[in-house]
Amino acid sequence: MTDNKLINLVNISKSYGDTIVLDDLNLYIRENEFLTLLGPSGCGKTTTLRILGGFETPNQGKVIFQGKDISKLAPNERPLNTVFQKYALFNHMTISENIAFGLKIKKKSKEYIKDKIKYALKLVNLEGFENRMPDSLSGGQQQRIAIARAIVNEPKVLLLDEPLGALDLKLRQDMQYELIRLKNELGITFVYVTHDQEEALTMSDTIVVMNQGYIQQIGSPEDIYNEPTNAFVADFIGDSNIIPSIMVDDKLVNILGANFPCVDTGFGKNKPVDVVIRPEDIDLVMPEEGIIRGVVTSLIFKGVHYEMDVMANGREWLVHSTDLSPVGSEVGIWVDPFDIQIMNKPESEDEEAAEIVE
User: Fold this and answer.
1) Going from the N-terminus, what domains does the chain have, and what CATH number goes with each?
2) What's the pLDDT at 43?
3) How much is the average pLDDT of 179-205?
4) Distances in Å between the alpha carbon of 148 and those of 83, 153, 158, 174?
5) Are residues 27 and 62 in contact, defined by beta-carbon separation less than 8 angstroms?
6) With the CA atoms of 288, 293, 299 and 305 taken in that order, what torsion angle do they form, in degrees rounded to the nearest 10?
7) Rounded to an integer, what distance in angstroms lies between the CA atom of residue 281 and that of residue 65?
8) Predicted confidence (pLDDT) at residue 130 exceeds the cutoff of 90
9) For the segment 297-326, what is each residue's pLDDT rounded down to a tens digit?
């Protein structure tokens, strides 16, 4: 990928009293990228976004935008616009007046403002809503107006702080596709904050997984899901079987007393590791055909697949399969070597939290 860095966050740290929220965070954001900050509550993702937008000041570090330090600029002086979870529409103003608010402050002409309102409403599929009041709109429509209000200011970057959190599931899914469409049509950079892994996987070009003020992993949705760097990422993104194991040698790992072929090398001999196996990557076969044997202990039909627990070698294995194995049946467990992900075992919890991947 070409070096088209738009924003550089350099050595950003932020504390509230004795609580460290961000600890020497470094991150760059490319032009026309949909980048998602993903992690649990309190991981520092919203603080990162607020520092980007100018709503928080870091204790140390710089926000570099196109080579210029904008760390001390007020929010309205930055080429960025923010869309919050609470839409912050003015209830006493019409939709047109809400969208025009920022343009009037910039003293744009009436004709310019009129054209921009028309363009923005068409972009968010709400043509004809000019004279409606915000309280007459659904949650999804209000969110679109909040986005339209940001778009008319022609920001280089749109910051979105859990903007779909207040919507129901169907609306949220619809808005995910709307945001992808808008990003592609507008050609601007989106920085998106969420704790919802599905949102992140669906919409992002790049996902930044955060925990305890540190970046855990940066990568494409496919990389994050298929090649998690550590147990935290594996556990946070999708369902996983995370099993303490022993790396016997290159391409061979001992899981719960049984040797499984894998493709990883360079971990040394007889070294403790963590193994990640996604539930959809486990094949249930005839007992004699598996690497180990187990018994199905529970079964739930999930629509697109069956979710099963299999007790094997003293551990419950989570399995997703389109083939049904009844509760009580004996099965073999087989995993393709390419589907076994080996991870170094951290020395301590602090080391695990602080593991930063460039």
Assistant:
1) 5-226 (3.40.50.300), 231-354 (2.40.50.140)
2) 92
3) 90
4) 10, 9, 11, 16
5) no
6) -60
7) 42
8) no
9) 999 999 999 999 999 999 999 999 999 999
Average pLDDT, integer, range 15-37: 94
pLDDT digits (tens, 9 = 90+) for 102-128: 888 888 888 888 898 988 888 888 888
b/e map of 325-334 (b: 16 or more CB within 10 Å)? beeeeebbbe
Could you tell me the two tokens for 215?
């970046």
SS (H, E, C) the chain: CCCCEEEEEEEEEEEECCEEEEEEEEEEEECCCEEEEECCCCCCHHHHHHHHHCCCCCCEEEEEECCEECCCCCHHHCCEEEECCCCCCCCCCCHHHHHHHHHHHCCCCHHHHHHHHHHHHHHCCCCCCCCCCHHHCCHHHHHHHHHHHHHCCCCCEEEEECCCCCCCHHHHHHHHHHHHHHHHHHCCEEEEEECCHHHHHHHCCEEEEEECCEEEEEECHHHHHHCCCCHHHHHHCCCCEEEEEEEEECCEEEECCEEEECCCCCCCCCEEEEEEECHHHEEEECHHHCCEEEEEEEEEECCCCEEEEEEECCEEEEEEECCCCCCCCEEEEEECHHHCEEEECCCCHHHHHHCCCC
- Work out the pLDDT band at 148, boundaries 50, 70, 90: confident
Average pLDDT over residues 92-96: 91
Distances (CA, A) of 296 to 139, 190, 225, 241, 287: 44, 45, 26, 16, 12
